[in-house]
Amino acid sequence: MNIIDCHCHIYPDAVAPKAVDAIAQFYDLEMNCSGTVAELKEIGKQYHVEKMLVHSTATKGYQVPSINNYLIDVLEKNHEFIGFGTLHPDYNKNEEEMERLIENGVKGIKFHPDFCQIDVLSKEMYEIYEMISGRLIIMFHIGDDRHPYSQPQKIRKILKDFPNLTVIGAHMGGYTTWEESYDILCGQNIYFDTSSSLAFISADMATRIIKKHTAERILFATDYPMWNIRDELKYFSKLSLTDSEREKILYTNAKKLLNV
Q1: What is the CA radius of gyration of the chain?
Q2: Do 176 and 202 meet the contact criterion of CB atoms below 8 Å apart?
Q3: What is the pLDDT of residues 92-129, one digit of tens each?
Q4: What average pLDDT does range 209-238 have in this prediction?
Q5: What is the pLDDT of residues 10-61, one digit of tens each?
Q6: Burial of 160 (C-beta count, 10 Å sphere; 0-12/13-18/19+)
Q7: Is 134 left (phi over 0), alpha (psi -120 to 50) or beta?
Q8: Buried (b) or exposed (e) across 163-187, using 16+ Cβ within 10 A?
Q9: Helix axis angle, 123-132 to 152-161, nearest 10°
Q10: Would you say residue 197 has pLDDT above 90?
Q11: pLDDT of residue 147
């Protein structure tokens, strides 16, 4: 089957080791890969991945333009990549930056509220949702039982308040809070990606989430460089899904959503 990987972090070669180490420390995990463009492209070729959705997230407002400059440059040189840019509630030119991203073919915005310590229900974030609604997709890191920034119930309120906002909920709708995701977000107007989930929950739990939410709303994703696609595909193969459901999750849902 063809594959689109819907969740990959990339960094410039010079800062990749530091960035990957920061993620490893934040999650207290050993990282599987280096976070570089060259390595991700090689992995994509090895496993016949047609497209990879790449992003980096600004933890401070001043970082927004430089991170987006890097992303735009990477997209120009690597046509197998799909890009999600970054904005930040402390950045004072978000609207101008959004227009620049759209002009350069960027498909969406990625927010990691827990890493950035941003409350997704803040007034400043609501201004961003209003601005991008109907124009760009938004991907949230959702859930983390250590932090209060992005619990599933907060995302559900955003979905209610912005019905025209296209949202991807990373980590099956709730990293470490999968039961809450199942109860609160399954069936809502949101896509889930499979990143950083299949290694931690049972195949039965993952299948239950997919069946309740429907396979049409699930996107295959690895969370590179945290995990390698070999292991993620192995976990995915253990789920009780039909061939049609597998094809939708691995490829056709993303192809349609991202218009690639």
Answers
A1: 17
A2: no
A3: 999 999 999 999 999 999 999 988 899 999 999 999 99
A4: 96
A5: 999 998 888 888 887 877 778 778 999 999 999 999 999 999 999 989 999 9
A6: exposed
A7: left
A8: eebbbbbbbbbbbbbbebbbebbbe
A9: 50
A10: yes
A11: 84
Q: Which residues contact 146 (CB under 8 A, 6 or more apart)?
A: 114, 176
pTM (two decimals): 0.95
User: Which tokens hold the place of 203?
Assistant: 């195949």
* Cα–Cα distance for residue pair 249/197, rounded to 1 Å: 14
Percentage of the chain surpassing pLDDT 70?
Answer: 100
Q: Which two tokens stand for residue 85?
A: 């840019």
Which residue has 């920061």 as its token pair?
22
